[in-house]
């Protein structure tokens, strides 16, 4: 529906993709839940999550928190893809709407920068269950902050 | 960016537009701030707000709360446009990101249903300043609830 | 319910109260809706809003956007009260839950800093209708950013 | 800071605690991340999460999504504790602010009902790292919906 102009998404670092992939690999949580990083484009990231029983809540659907975990990553790495090579990214806050039960064999989380900024970047995310009709499961709006030279926060 | 399927937006009431416009007319707050209802389509509403000095915050931009007021209405009436004739709509919650100062001669708030539902409807909203480039000012995600036959809440 | 430690709220500027009150006075929107600034303490602000017909939505309650306007201000000025004298504050985002219809003769918006920071400050806000029982109308969580020396954003 | 009246939190079902504990036990995700259910009171729940390397993001802190997972559960079960025995609870949406890196040996997630309702319940949640000073890590506001007799959603 966006009728406002689309943002221009230009990465500061030409090696953004390898930087994003290395950062993703350092996340213990992604291995634990079995998520993999698919597409990495400037300001846009996709993550793939197969269904597993040990990801579920009490009704047998994937837990909203696990859905959030992959959406937060898709948004965070979408923001990070535009940042300088020595930057770190942290989530300041996010808001999630859960639109349908997370049923399905697999899920795709997509994150996209809607407002790049010097300090603050804002992203939209979604998770859908791919199929004949790609069923929308959840949406996110996330606010990320870029840190540079902050002690205690390694690059990534 | 949405790669999930778009929702099907079918109004329950063929007279949805006049119902939306009557409800809008009953809002004292819209008269106070000088907003007018423009487009009304199934699941989609646009509101127009000219700049006025008496809508500003301390820096001379339109107040984030006033921007929210028109976005909340655009979302609420987008949801209401799909509901039965005897229903009422109330905002359960919303989340707003303020992406740029609300500078400009006028602003357009758009609301769109992303998930229609029996009880809960979810909408996305945005406000932009129209111009050569339509500058995105703010975004909203809103959760609305439909009420029917609830005492104390008149239809609308 | 907070069992985490409370934040220490120390203003950088001993004249924080006059600075907050001057900034409030510059807001055209506050005059328009008839809101007044009551309490100003370090990291805590209260705003008073009497009911008026021209603040209402279609059901005769005060519009959620107007309720948001005073809550956003209570949060923004609570954050601003802790900042250096040459700083400006802007809302990055906020999230509002509407818990009860805004019925009553008057409303009090309170904002409180829950996490002061160098760049980012997070506040909680609420609006209630005072009475024998103070009825909770709405809650807010707001993220604010401090700007210093940014051209185009006057102090305040 | 809440000066509005506190809600009265009365469980519909005297066996609420065993019902909450059984539902928690059915969550594969809780076993996966090693979380345990501690306190269950009417409208209030605490969950304990020890630090593990396989819960981390790229900087070595516990992933914001995992922190969200336990907060979402604390809120969801706090809401569920007040509901009738044949009800199910689902998260409609939540909003998370990440206030400090999730460093520490363990974390406690607390959820509390701030507005019980027939259909919609609103909760506040927080995660803190217990210590000499209990360090606040994150906060949540969550909107939950009660379902009764909905096919496809088992009780819990």
TrEMBL record, chains A, B, C, D:
Annotated signal sequence is none
Q: Which residues form the Thioesterase domain?
A: 59-131
Q: Cytoplasm: present as a keyword of the record?
A: no
One matching Pfam family is 4HBT
Q: Which UniProt keywords apply?
A: Hydrolase
Q: Which family does it belong to?
A: Belongs to the thioesterase PaaI family.
Recorded protein name is PaaI family thioesterase
Please tell me the species this chain comes from.
Brevibacillus choshinensis
